[in-house]
Amino acid sequence: MNYYFLAALLPPLKLEEVPELSFIELTHLVAVNLNKADKAKTIVIRRAIDLANIRAHLLGEPIDPRGNLSETEIDEILLVHAGVPDYVADFLDRRETKAERLKFFSELMMLYYKVEISKAEGFLRKYLIFERNWRLVLTAQRAKSLGYDIVKELQFEDLNDPLVLQILAQKDAIKYDPPTEYQAIVEKYLSAAADPWQQYLLFAKWRFEKIEELVDRSISSIDWILAYMAQLIIVEHRHELDKHRGNRLLDTFKLR
């Protein structure tokens, strides 16, 4: 399939500027221009928002409209556990109460990354691994800074995973020393520890630039479209927030 026509419609993205094209407008273009297999890849990216929206709905908070599911659809899913991947339905079957679903939400996110990474390829696979790994690193750093039990924080993770092993090996250390490729994110976290809004901006810029590095920039590739979608989510979030919400948003970076 030739993706040039769709890519040519997408204006350049800059983190500091309000995007010319909204995410909702992008989803309309995707619906018209991509085939079924490629649409499914965009659904996977948006599914992380769906899962966060399930948690928000349980907490009585507004949902993010960038997900695949409406609030009515989330309501129905919580009742009948249909219309979602098997791992989501299984989680809802096992965690029957609202309290359990909130308490063990990190298990659902672990399942999302585990299952979707196993099926993905190309940019989508690299992106999902990146998103999972930096969240694990940040969870480890926050646990160390706040005195949380990192073993409990990672209780649902694969104990054979190299990054999980690297984190758990330092559970009794005074400070957390991340892998080289994630040193920058920990340094940014520590440098802006007193200012949650600056922390958020630093993380947003870091993620935006890393996604740029993950993708083949050829506009004739579906990977380019997927990267644009992932970056647009970050840009829109950045412009929807203000300093008063920075602290709350930083908490959503954790897997717990």
Question: How would you describe this structure to a colleague?
Answer:
This protein has helices at residues 4-8, 23-33, 36-58, 71-80, 86-94, 98-103, 105-119, 122-146, 150-153, 162-168, 183-191, 196-214, 222-240, 246-251. The chain is mainly α. It has one domain (14-251). α7 (105-119) runs antiparallel to α8. The termini are far apart. 27% of the residues are buried. The model has no long low-confidence stretch (mean pLDDT 89).
Q: Could you list some keywords that capture this structure?
A:
single chain; mainly alpha; 14 helices; 66% helix
Total domains? 1
Q: What order do the SSEs take from the amino end to the carboxyl end, as H and E?
A: HHHHHHHHHHHHHH
- The overall pLDDT, averaged over residues, is 89
The proportion of residues in beta strands is: under 5%
